[in-house]
Amino acid sequence: MKAGIVGLPNVGKSTLFNCLSNAKAQSANFPFCTIEPNIGVVNVPDPRLEKLEELVSPERVIPATVEIVDIAGLVKGASKGEGLGNQFLANIRETDAILHVLRCFDNENIVHVDGSVDPIRDKETIDMELQLKDLETVEKKLDKVKRAAKTGNKEAQKEEAILLKIKENIEAGISVRAIEFSEEDYQDYVKPSQFITDKPVLYVCNVDEGAATTGNAYVDKVRDAVKNENAEVLVLAVGTEADINELDDYEERQMFLADIGLEEPGSAKLIRSAYKLLNQQTYFTAGVKEVRAWTVNVGATGPQAAGVIHTDFEKGFIRAEVISYNDYVEYGSEAKVKEAGKMRVEGKNYIVKDGDVMHFLFNV
Ligand code: GDP
């Protein structure tokens, strides 16, 4: 699962990517690693992990991670192959969620590709390129289904009707994620098509340092423009955070963050939001050798959670011993939780909850 950073040139995408990639900002234990120049695996900052570390004193601590891709090169006309257009769109298709960076700061020295600062226009430019690509997909699908629909095939007629609805909406500038479908139609016909504009999105308003906690007039406009999209809007002073990250000393970094009104880097919040956007959650394993955060999809079962550690754990799953994070912290150790009768034994149908501390029993 990965999230892609998109936005027009010069809005702060690479600065944000570098900011996320700066290990100092997240965790001293596990440095960021770059798979390719534009792909990074970023630790998910999680205070619960620090708490468990404190209680268990393990040899090592391993955080959950999320993969972030910097997708450069989207310009007006990308869907027609302008710039790195097609490459860009191929990259974005492979992501599972979109972090859309919008320039919400004034600075005469930083040229805007369209000559002025206007995040709403920028958003529409990007949306349109993505929508045009989806329109191509819809038209291809319509071509395929048309003949079968004509011969009276009910299934094909249903699909055709849904595709036509999508086509009309896109032509009116509406992204697939904002179109209403019945749950069944969505699952059967829309979701499998993997439209680019159906991917969940989070808007990152890149502001100057004075607006890091308050936002500004540009941010207000963005909030207003996306209010029907069911999308989170994050305010981030990307340039300032990048500067703060340059400092080696932790205390000093915290001081500068406090100066702009923050307790932790906005990028930490962004990483957690991206993780959520990808529909992911964390369970923990806590032993003296290792305390570790593992990632599962929301809704995963006990065996699926075990499978994240090893496929054999999933195949041979017998049961899981589960302690909720809050109980773990309240009683202070596994033994004390057991004593208090707060450890649960769960079977194959158990739906994992965020923060569960788990131990699996399995056949080999
Ligand atoms: P990209 O093309 O979207 O990847 O944009 P960059 O990250 O390369 O940023 C373009 C320019 O804007 C660089 O000179 C950055 O230093 C600058 N920049 C990025 N974020 C901010 C910000 O929040 N405020 C200001 N004033 N400048 C920024």
Automatic annotation (TrEMBL):
Gene Ontology MF terms: ATP binding; ATP hydrolysis activity; GTP binding; metal ion binding; ribosomal large subunit binding
TM region positions: none
A cellular component annotation (GO) from this entry: cytoplasm
SUPFAM superfamilies attached to this UniProt entry: P-loop containing nucleoside triphosphate hydrolases, TGS-like
Domain TGS: residue ranges: 279-362
Keyword Magnesium attributed: yes
Annotated binding of ATP, by residue: N10, V11, G12, K13, S14, T15
Signal peptide annotation: none
Keyword Nucleotide-binding: yes
Alphabetic keyword roster: ATP-binding, Coiled coil, Magnesium, Metal-binding, Nucleotide-binding
Domain OBG-type G: from-to ranges: 1-256
One Pfam assignment: MMR_HSR1
Protein family: Belongs to the TRAFAC class OBG-HflX-like GTPase superfamily. OBG GTPase family. YchF/OLA1 subfamily.
Family matches, as HAMAP family: YchF_OLA1_ATPase (MF_00944)
Job of this protein: ATPase that binds to both the 70S ribosome and the 50S ribosomal subunit in a nucleotide-independent manner.
Protein name: Ribosome-binding ATPase YchF
Gene behind this protein: ychF
